[in-house]
Amino acid sequence: MASSGSRSRARGSGDVTGLVLAAGGSRRLGQPKQLLPYGAATLLDHTLATARACRFDQLLCVLGAVADAVRDGADLDDVEVIENGAFGDGCSSSIAAALNAVDPATAVLVLLLGDQPGVTPATVAALLAGRGEAPLAVCRYDDGRGHPLAFARSAFAELAALHGDKGVWKLLERRSDEVVDIPVAGPIPRDVDTWSDYLAVTAEAEGVRP
């Protein structure tokens, strides 16, 4: 945990932990997407810089495939790294692995994807400000729901028991009456799953219409 002097607390009641998922094997892309050039560094570096700007009380990042290469190629300073050997079982396995490292003082977990560079600190701030005391909160973009997501500690046990890549969305469906949708202008930020996705996000970052 960072000291109160080194970070301002993220908005909301209780400590807030940011969790960046970056364990995927990039099967469709054919090379580690975490280390693709993006801006002045890599795709994962950009996401972690966004997470740092959110001033979370704790920042976690889950690695899995090519973890050693990512450790060598990305800036992981001030980040608590968890390695998920079961990354092939989907995002839920990474969340479960990370929950073991969440600080006991944490009241809210914010989930971010390591391959979604379009998410901004302002989006995270809006999510935390808008959730109130709701146990579950999700960003509602112009074209649907998307990350980042926020989970109160009361949901952690269910998060730990999820399976597969769609587990969190199934949890939101099961507890739909407890979910707060936070309006965010614009389309759902693009995930980088394919080479065309990568070309699109780099074009967007450069202000070029993809």
| CATH topology (fold) name | Spore Coat Polysaccharide Biosynthesis Protein SpsA, Chain A
Helical content band: 25-40%
Q: Which class of secondary structure composition applies to the elements?
A: alpha/beta
Sheet bearing the most strands, described? 7 strands, mixed
Q: Number of helix segments?
A: 7
Count of individual domains: 1
Spatial extent as radius of gyration:
16 Å
Number of strands: 9
Strand order of the largest sheet: 5-4-1-6-8-7-9
What is the rounded distance between the termini? 40 Å
Mean pLDDT: 87
Order of helices and strands: EEEHEHEHEHEEHHEH
Describe this protein's structure.
- With 210 residues, the chain is an alpha/beta fold.
- It has a single domain, classed as Spore Coat Polysaccharide Biosynthesis Protein SpsA, Chain A (Alpha-Beta Complex).
- It is 30% helix and 24% strand.
- The strands form 2 sheets. Strands 5-4-1-6-8-7-9 form a 7-stranded mixed beta sheet, with helices on both faces. Strands 2-3 form a two-stranded antiparallel sheet.
- The longest helix has 11 residues.
- The radius of gyration is 16 Å and the shape is globular.
- The termini are far apart.
- The relative contact order is 0.18.
- The N terminus is likely disordered.
